[in-house]
Amino acid sequence: MNIVTKEFGIINGEKIYSFTLENNNGMQLTCINLGCIVTEIKTPDSNGNLENVVLGYKTVEEYLENKTFFGAIVGRVAGRIANAQFEIDNNQYFLPKNEGNNHLHGGISGFNEKIWHAKPIEADHAVGIEFSYSSIDGEEGYPGTVKLSVTYLLTNDNEWVQTIKGTTDKKTLLNVTNHSFFNLSGNAKADILSHELTVKSDQFLELNDQLLPTGKMLSVEGTAFDFRNGRKLNDGRLSEHPQNRLAGNGYDHPFLLAENEQQEIILLDETSGRTLTVETNQPCVVIYTSNQMSDEFTTSEGVQTKKYLAVCLETQGLPDAIHHANFPSVMLEPTSEYKSVTKYTFGVR
């Protein structure tokens, strides 16, 4: 097992480094200390060909200029907060409005744009990086100083284990996720519409026309949102369901997980034979099939971005939970610790 460190770029005179983790099977995960961004994951197909299965850019400048959140840690709160405001203990907090009238993915300069401290980790059966960052009281409008750590471990079982921890000195909101865009075809040589997804989920959140949860939890039964026995992602593009149409002919929805850490999410690309199994301790996964992706950007492989080029599987708490009493809380108290664990296992069928 091995870790290779290289200079990736410079921001305001500060060097950004890339860290390539490699296991004994030749699988590689590369990340940078800007936003804990995963820039590349190279995994074998059924013929043993190593190819990249996430979308990324070649330069620091592209990550900062293109607001696509490729591979980044987003927060303090992933997803949208309605009207960019919330209340805690009769105190009103106002956040930057960076998507219409709402607050998205932590604001104008969220965790995805911060420079994190990085420390390599070497264990018997894994190599990794531990990132740390202190988000000061009032940053992007949020109360409390939050101390965070994000650990990426790569094991010899082709597992990427992601652990996010946080503590605060004042009651605040914290709901963090990784925003990697997956495409198991390899080097984004095809879109993800023929990928098959299986999810242990009986319900998904209804969204309004601003893609904010209405508070209703809808049954997946009899709809294109029923992934319990596996279905092609193309079904969402073709579906006449008003929620698929609302999201831009596809998915951009939180699915409530019926089980945790029990192979609850499986993605398959039959052509390459690659599989991705996702297990998490989080209550939901936001499935986004890149329905809104523009064609303005070019990935690190030289592929022009477009709709349906990749799928996000964002494990997290429920979006806009602060405004819905029936959702699990994303409030963090000074007496407790936030801990999110997600394991991505790459294989072949």
UniProtKB/TrEMBL annotation:
Matches recorded under SUPFAM superfamilies: Galactose mutarotase-like
Active site: 179 (proton donor), 314 (proton acceptor)
Protein name: Aldose 1-epimerase
Listed pathway(s): Carbohydrate metabolism; hexose metabolism
Enzyme Commission number(s) of this protein: 5.1.3.3
InterPro entries linked to this entry: Aldose_1-epimerase (IPR015443), Aldose_1/G6P_1-epimerase (IPR008183), Gal_mutarotase_sf_dom (IPR011013), Galactose_mutarotase-like (IPR047215), GH-type_carb-bd (IPR014718)
GO biological process: galactose catabolic process via UDP-galactose, Leloir pathway; glucose metabolic process
One GO cellular component term: cytoplasm
Family designation: Belongs to the aldose epimerase family.
Binding residues annotated for beta-D-galactose, in chain numbering: 252
Residues in the signal sequence: none
Domain of life: Bacteria
Catalysed reactions, semicolon-separated: alpha-D-glucose = beta-D-glucose
Keyword Repeat: no
Keyword DNA repair: no
PANTHER family in the cross-refs: ALDOSE-1-EPIMERASE, GALACTOSE MUTAROTASE
Keywords: Carbohydrate metabolism, Isomerase
Gene3D superfamilies: 2.70.98.10
Gene Ontology MF term list: aldose 1-epimerase activity; carbohydrate binding
Pfam families noted in UniProt: Aldose_epim (PF01263)
